[in-house]
Amino acid sequence: MKILYLNPKAQLGGGERSLLDVMIEVRAIRPDWELxxxxxEDGPLLEAAREIGVAARAxxxxxxxxxxxxSAITNSSGGATRTAKxxxxxxxxxxxxxxxxxxxALRAAISAExxxxxxxxxxxxxxxxxxxxxxxxxIIWHVRDYVGQRPAMSRLLAMHSRRCxxxxxxxxxxxxxxxxxxxQIARTVPIHNGIDLETFNPAGAxxxxxxxxxxxRPTGVVVRVGLLATMAQWKGHEIFLRALAMIPRDLxxxxxxxGGSLYxxxxxxxxxxxxxxxxxxxSLNGNVGFTGFVDEPAAAIRALDIVVHASTNPEPFGRVIAxxxxxxxxxxxxxxxxALEIVTSGQDAIAIAPGDAAALAASIxxxxxxxxxxxxxxxxxxxxxxxxFDRARMARELIPLYEELEAxxxxxxxx
Length: 415
What we know:
Elements (H helix, E strand, L loop, with lengths): L1 E6 L6 H16 L4 E6 L4 H8 L3 E4 L4 H4 L4 H4 L7 H32 L3 E4 L2 H10 L6 E5 L7 H9 L4 E6 L2 H10 L6 E3 L18 H4 L10 E6 L8 H9 L7 E6 L13 H10 L6 E5 L4 H6 L3 E4 L9 H8 L3 E5 L4 H4 L7 E3 L4 H12 L2 H18 L2 H24 L1
Parallel strand pairs: 1-2, 1-4, 2-3, 4-5, 5-6, 6-7, 8-9, 8-11, 9-10, 11-12, 12-13
C-alpha cells in the first residue's frame, strides 16, 4: 500500500503535528506500507517526516496561492468591510491563477508516486488534489476546521466534492458543519485527534517561561497561568489578557502568552505588537509575558499550573486542550464546538462560555486559590487523555479506511 499525504504548510502547527502523529503510527502498525509527503513549502514538517522514514518533498506554492485565505472576510469584526471584500476578490483571482500554474508540477509528482490513496490535510490541498490526482487514486479530505463560514472555500469544496471518497474530520462538530456546507460529500467520518502520550505527560523537563518571556524572576511563589496557541485572531489572546487584568493584585498570578505566528495567510494572525500594547494599557507590566514560538510545547505546559483555552470561535477539536490534559494540568476551556466533545466540565476541566473574560478571570481565581482542586482536575485529565487521545487509536481508525478505499478502487478499475 502506498499512501501519499498532501499538506499546504511545513511549519509545525496543530494540523501538521497531528499529521505527523498519523504517519508515525501508521508506519508502526503497517511497516510494509510506503508513505510519502508533499508540502507546499519547505520546513520542519518535512524534516520531521524524513526522520521517521517518510519520503518528503516540497513543491513550493506561488505566493498568490500561499498567502490567500478567507481570513480577510471571516476575521473582519462586525462583518466584512467593502475594502476587505475587494481585497478578498482580488486575492481570489490571484490565487486561482497561481493554483493553475502549480497544478502541472503537482500532477507530475503525484503520478510519479503512484499512490493507492491520497490523504489531503488542508483546504488548499483538497482542491489541488481534486485537480491533480489521477482518477485511479481515491482521495481522503482530512477536514480540521469549520468551512460553513468560509465564503470561497465552502463553494470550492462543494464544487469538487465528487473527488472526495471520504471526508475525515477531527470532531463530530466539524463533521456536522461540513455535511451542512457540502452535502454532496458522500461520506463523513469523525476521528478525534490523537497525541503522543509519552511526550505529553506530567513528568519531564519544564521550560523557563520567565527567561523566554524576558521577565524578572518572581520573588516568591506564583501560580503560572498560560495560553498556548498560534497567533490566529480567534484564539482569544485579548480575552486572556483582560481576564488577567481582573485578577486581584494580592493574588500571586503570572500570565504567559505562549506561541507565535506560523501561517502566511493574509489577515489570519493576531498582531503581537498590538497585544503588548493591550497588556500595557491593562497595567499588566510584570504580570504577563510573551514567550514567542516554543519548540517543545510539552515543556512549556509542564511549567504552568493552569492552562487556558480562550478561543472566541467554536474550536474544531482543541489539540492544546488534549495536550494539557495529558500533562496532568488543570485546564479552563472555552466550551464550544469540538472542545465540548473532549472534556467533562467539573470532572477533568472547567468549561466557560467563549469570549467571557469575567468568567475566565473567576475560574483562574478559583484554581489559583485551590491547589488540591488543580491536582484533582489534573489527575482526571490525564486519565481522560490516556483513555481517549492515544495517537495509536487515531491510526487504528484510519487504517481500515485506507484499506477499504484501496480495495474498492481496485475493484472499480478492474471492471
